[in-house]
Automatic annotation (TrEMBL):
Keywords: Transferase. InterPro entries: AGP_Transferase (IPR051678), Aminoglycoside_PTrfase (IPR002575), Kinase-like_dom_sf (IPR011009). This is Aminoglycoside phosphotransferase family protein. The keyword Transferase applies. Residues 31-243 form the Aminoglycoside phosphotransferase domain. GO terms for molecular function: transferase activity. Pfam families: APH. It comes from Nocardioides ganghwensis.
Length: 293
């Protein structure tokens, strides 16, 4: 079944109407695996960002996802967490045919390289996020390492490590203190300006769960994109500012979550990224850090 087209022109008109100033220009922002992300400039000189939930399967769940992002931004609006401000929401996609969320545009851009100072800043911000206590708890986190994924990848150089990881996840989950989670916290969802983090974006997966799952997700992304060295440094930095030691269960859960469902291609297309994931999982279940770290 073909997807119905999204009416971007109608969405832009709606954004202008909501802010009381028409959109005079728009451009696509980088990223946006689930959505079309548009940077808007309005006639009065203000800027905003428009999320259109255009990619499946997220489009089907767009109402829930965009409403959750709106609620998360409202929850941290009066806190030290530098999140966008929610400006308007069409969760049901009445205007454009897909869920639309209009929000403020924050200054800055993602980092191309991650150094020691950036890792420390990430850990501090993550601790700040976890210190928040919304009046209404968000949904309990969802694992992205469902059992259908527990198949040793054909490209692995450490197949026994994947089997050990699956055995870990087959056991009971450890107890945890329910914590406010970003749930998709990683360096690609951070904006930087003048050497400091100026924004954390993409709040559609906000949840309640174990704090270390957020740290694990940030570490997995660093491992895949930049190597195991920065990933382990992030975990060490977070351990220094967070209460309580980590449990390998959450680290393993996140790494296994990057495996594709049966019959699907891996989400990382480059060979070196798959090798880094393979090495990182191997490290998490007791192997040595890879040489490139």
């Amino acid at each position: 079944m073909l997807e119905s087209p999204v009416d971007v022109a109608a969405a832009l008109a709606w954004a202008g109407s909501e802010l009381g100033s028409p959109v005079v220009s728009s451009g696509t922002l980088d990223g946006g695996m689930t959505s079309t992300m548009l940077a808007l400039r309005h006639g009065d000189g203000t800027e905003s960002v428009l999320r259109l939930m255009t990619a499946e399967p997220w489009r089907t769940h767009g109402a829930e996802l965009t409403a959750r992002e709106r609620d998360a931004q409202l929850a941290v609006a009066a806190t030290p967490v530098p999140a966008p401000t929610s400006l308007a929401l069409d969760a049901e996609g009445v205007v454009a045919g897909a869920a639309a969320h209009l929000m403020s545009r924050l200054p800055g851009a993602p980092l191309r390289e991650v150094d020691d100072a950036a890792v420390l800043a990430m850990a501090d911000l993550l601790a700040t996020i976890h210190a928040q206590h919304p009046q209404q708890p968000f949904r309990t986190f969802q694992s992205w390492a469902w059992p259908a994924k527990w198949v040793v990848p054909t490209w692995s150089r450490h197949p026994e490590s994947w089997r050990r990881a699956f055995a870990v996840l087959a056991g009971p989950a450890p107890a945890y203190e329910p914590t406010f989670l970003h749930r998709d916290f990683d360096h690609r969802n951070l904006l930087w300006s003048d050497g400091a983090i100026s924004g954390v974006v993409d709040w559609v997966e906000t949840s309640t769960g174990p704090a270390w799952l957020d740290a694990a997700h940030a570490a997995s992304n660093l491992a895949v994109m930049h190597g195991a060295g920065p990933a382990q440094a992030l975990l060490d930095a977070y351990a220094a500012v967070a209460a309580g030691p980590t449990d390998p269960y959450w680290l393993v859960m996140d790494a296994v979550g990057y495996l594709p469902p049966p019959g699907k291609a891996p989400m990382f297309g480059r060979v070196e990224q798959l090798e880094r994931l393979d090495d990182w999982l191997h490290h998490l279940v007791g192997g040595e850090l890879p040489a490139q770290a």
